[in-house]
Amino acid sequence: MHEAHAPTGRARSGRRAPQAVTPAPRTVGFVLVPDFPLMAYTAAVEPLRAANTLSGCELYRWWHAAPGGGMVQASNGLGILTDVTVGASADADRIFVCAGGNPAEFDDPALFAWLRGLARHGATLGGISGGPYLLARAGLLAGRRCTLHWEHVPAFEERYPEIDVVRSLFEIQGDRITCSGGIAALDLMLDLIGRDHGAGLAAGVSDWFLHNRIREGVSPQRMDLRQRFGVRDPRLLRVLAAMEANLEAPLSRETLADLAHVSVRQLERLFRGGLGRGLHRHYLGLRLDRAHQLGRESALSRTEIATATGFASADELSRAERRRQRQGAEG
């Protein structure tokens, strides 16, 4: 009896056995704007590293750029050293602008021109967290659907009413990708890895990061009202949803009570029992929070902010803000 021999690497026909073809690596650029959110950036770059490690080959490579070059600091003070200069020729299949803070105030014509040039040369452009705001400022989201962090949405909608904003985790629309930020960037990258190299690798990367459910792009950004406020009463939940959807033209107490199918007095009891505050104070707080967001992240005047949040004038808005400050100081 003859011993079996190990394969020699040739097929019986004499031809060499087919070899697995390693795909050419995709290059991903990260444009980090000062005070960028570190969690969102990390959630975007780490899945690429993990895909390389788990696959045993270089599927992805990446570079960093920032306005002014050199070291760019995240919002928590940690610095990332850039290796590509804004304005220089740069090879990339996908480029993500990662921004936080107040993107409405950021203005860098040189950066915007560079991004437009990269798009013309075939790169897919993406924005993470406040990054979509900068893509819009560069004129790269015209006629597109996009998402961005919910905190930036009110100011963005006021400034760009022609752009279709959805409050999803991420949106992939041809050569534009937008992401709401935070750990949603992980779900985005898992989706892209799945498209590039198959669902098996995406699942492996997800499992490696103890992320036991890959969320779809259309998933909502925020916890539902039941989780956010710790309430279960469907009547109260209907009213809370209506309040959040109607800040510019606040609904009357009677209209809200009709939505809950209760009397105004019963609705007040529901609010005090479920949230520990009255209906009026909660609704007013929502409007003041929105006014604060618009004041921080938009170029709207005080009068325009007052109108957008249901106040008759800038003076009325200011009085409401002062009352809330006094109430907060009094505990």
Write structural notes for this entry.
The chain is an alpha/beta fold and 331 residues long. 45% of the residues lie in helices and 13% in strands. It has 13 helices and ten strands. Strand 5, helix 2 and strand 6 (124-129) form a beta-alpha-beta unit. The radius of gyration is 25 Å and the shape is globular. The N and C termini lie far apart (92 Å). The model is unreliable at 1-14 (pLDDT under 50).
The main β sheet shows up as: 6 strands, mixed
Distance between the termini: 92 Å
Quaternary organisation of the protein chains: single chain
Give the tally of β-strands.
Answer: 10
**Radius of gyration from the alpha-carbon trace, in angstroms:** 25 Å
Q: What is the helical fraction, as a range of percent?
A: 40-55%
Widest sheet: strand ordering: 2-1-5-6-10-9
What order do the helices and strands follow?
EHEEEEHEHEHEEEHHHHHHHHH
Poorly predicted segments: 1-14
Secondary structural class: alpha/beta
Strand fraction: 5-15%
Dominant shape:
globular
Number of helices: 13
How much is the average pLDDT?
Answer: 88
